[in-house]
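Next comes a concrete protein, fold included:
___
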Amino acid sequence: MRGGAGIEERGRESSRPPRVALLGSRGIPARYGGYETLFAELAPRLVARGFDVTVYARKHYVRRPVRRYRGARIVVLPTLATKHLDTPVHTLLSCLHAASERFDAALVVNSANALFLPLLGAAGVPSVLNVDGIERRRAKWGAFGRAVYALSERLACLLPDALVTDAEVIREHYERRYGAPSTVVTYGVDRGPARGRRTLTRLGLEPGRYLLYVSRFEPENNPHRVAEAYRRVPGELPLVLVGTAPYASAFIDSFTRGADPRVRFPGAIYGRGYRQLLEHCAAYVHATEVGGTHPALVEAMGHGACCIVHDTPENREVAGAAALYFRAEEPASLAAAIGRVLADPPLARRLGEAAAARARARFDWEAVADRYAELLARVAGLGPLPASRREPPAVG
């Protein structure tokens, strides 16, 4: 990695706040996945820490023109909304725009976007790259996609000024395979009260009388296996599979058509409605098998849900002993875990309490914002920033 070499020392004598760009996601407000949630939580907290923040968003993702969100400027750019070109085309345009504005630093997400970092570097904009998990292992990618991500992993070790991984397992992968050091920065959890049960009422659900799954509907997140395993679970409780995915209609049809009638598919739900579902579920099923720290699992833990989790090193790193584990490729193991918590409410309650305690201790958005603020200031040559723990700007 380039380190900070050659970056002019800017100091803090200027009255101008440091200008940073956040790019590579679909944009904010968050209505899709982990990167969007990260930027939605991080941007206002960086503003509260004295940064001038710009977030790049995709035109087809933003439902209505939004120029500012909780103190952050939003720049909406076009892209080609196809499975393979959506991210790279938008990141290319974002980097060109960011280079023209000469930000003090940029936070870029997604290892596939490493290819575009020289555009920022040529304009003197240092970069921090968050690579998330090991993307080339995702089942949705064909041979070409996996090859692109394999190349991106290597570039991620060379081109950014700082590399961020979101779990110790991923940090070890980059260090062991490429000898590349990185900083581990996890996700946080918004533990605010859900305030009401409107979403439950809309979906015809009763508190404590449904199971919940939340994720993008992609093969490596195993929604199809969760839906199939639920056929083995007796009783009448509904299983609510919350999520969707672009460019995956054939896969989604394969498990939604003819599904067990107890399985419900309400689509994607965000914000307060999402938190209401987490707060009142009997148990939360987490079945992802690729990635590092999954925001959905962290959020479920933070809301005190009894978590039933697919057994991977990354998921164990997040949930520890505060969860029951199953193997997604073994439907009977998931059915058995669900049956166990439904038959033993005190166990479910203890697991939920343990999950909430673990989330409080390990996943805090203020600590996450502090780490990113330090990294962005360091690569920009700004030196130490004054401590700030002001409340981030409110929504609206």
Observations:
- The two ends are 39 Å apart (CA to CA).
- The longest strand covers residues 52-58.
- Residues 3-13 have pLDDT under 50 and may be disordered.
